[in-house]
Amino acid sequence: MSFSVAIDGPAGAGKSTIAKEIAKRLGYIYVDTGAMYRAMALYMIRKNIKPDETDKMSLASKEVDITIEYYNGEQLVILNGENVNPFIRSEEVGNMASVSSANKDVRFKLVDLQRQLASKADVIMDGRDIGTYVLPNANIKIYLTASSKVRAKRRYEELTQKGLSCNIEEIEKDIIERDRRDSTREFAPLKQAEDAILIDSSDMSIEQVINTVIKMVNGGNK
Ligand code: DC
């Protein structure tokens, strides 16, 4: 049986930074499910589908081909044969992903892919519904969060480091709106699983969070 670690939490809590590093240290596969929803959203944007066009989103999700490949340990999302990693990190794509991920057909398609990946290898998978829906039997479940102020500050620093200009208040507003959408949608909303361990990283360093999770994995039942 493969081993699985599920990390859920709101936007900007540091899930991917932490999951990526833990995967490297433990030799697990890192599965970034947000990147899959982002690739799907990119496809919708390219097809000019608007956020309120639910039927078109359902149809689009059925025709699109999304797969995952790994290159030097990095997850590549392949959208209809194209590696779209360079195009999925913008705020535009993130906001569309938050809307289109509420669509049931979009979720069915991607959850299926996520479960297949977890059945084949030891994984650390991050997202919004991993512990509650995708992998309800995950060996370790973590709910990673931080205050919206801290999350906005981290996102701001990440974007300015990349040379992108942005406004910290706008980022915080966006984060709060995204949290609201992700946690109030009808199907598989963002919420802490009953058996998940809560980590609030507002006053923790990346290394402290990583060590906390690794301790849990080592104390687990592998
Ligand atoms: O983690 P992220 O910012 O890359 O995710 C982008 C959006 O995708 C997020 O706002 C909600 C959605 N998402 C989801 O609904 N379920 C997941 N397991 C992962 C992401």
Largest sheet: 5 strands, parallel
Structural class: alpha/beta
**CA-based gyration radius:** 17 Å
- Determine the mean pLDDT: 94
Show unreliable segments.
none
The largest beta-sheet arranges its strands as 2-6-1-7-8
User: What is the CATH homology-level superfamily of the largest domain?
Assistant: P-loop containing nucleotide triphosphate hydrolases
Do you know the CATH architecture of the largest domain?
3-Layer(aba) Sandwich
Shape: globular
CATH fold label of the largest domain: Rossmann fold
Whole-number tally of structural domains: 2
Distance between the termini: 10 Å
- Percent of residues in β-strands: 15-25%
Subcellular location: Cytoplasm
Family: Belongs to the cytidylate kinase family. Type 1 subfamily.
Binding site for ATP: 9-17
Domain Cytidylate kinase: 5-218
Topology overview:
Layout: E1 4-8, H1 15-26, E2 29-32, H2 33-46, H3 54-63, E3 66-71, E4 74-79, E5 82-83, H4 91-100, H5 104-120, E6 123-127, H6 130-134, E7 140-145, H7 148-161, H8 168-184, E8 197-200, H9 206-218
Parallel strand pairs: 1-6, 1-7, 2-6, 7-8
Antiparallel strand pairs: 3-4, 4-5
Bound molecules: 2'-deoxycytidine-5'-monophosphate (DC).
2'-deoxycytidine-5'-monophosphate (DC) binds at residues 11, 33-34, 37-38, 94, 97-98, 101, 127-129, 178, 182.
Entry keywords:
single chain; 222 residues; alpha/beta; Rossmann fold; 2 domains; 5-stranded parallel beta sheet; 3-stranded antiparallel beta sheet; binds 2'-deoxycytidine-5'-monophosphate; nucleotide-binding; Cytidylate kinase; P-loop_NTPase; kinase; Cytidylate_kinase_dom
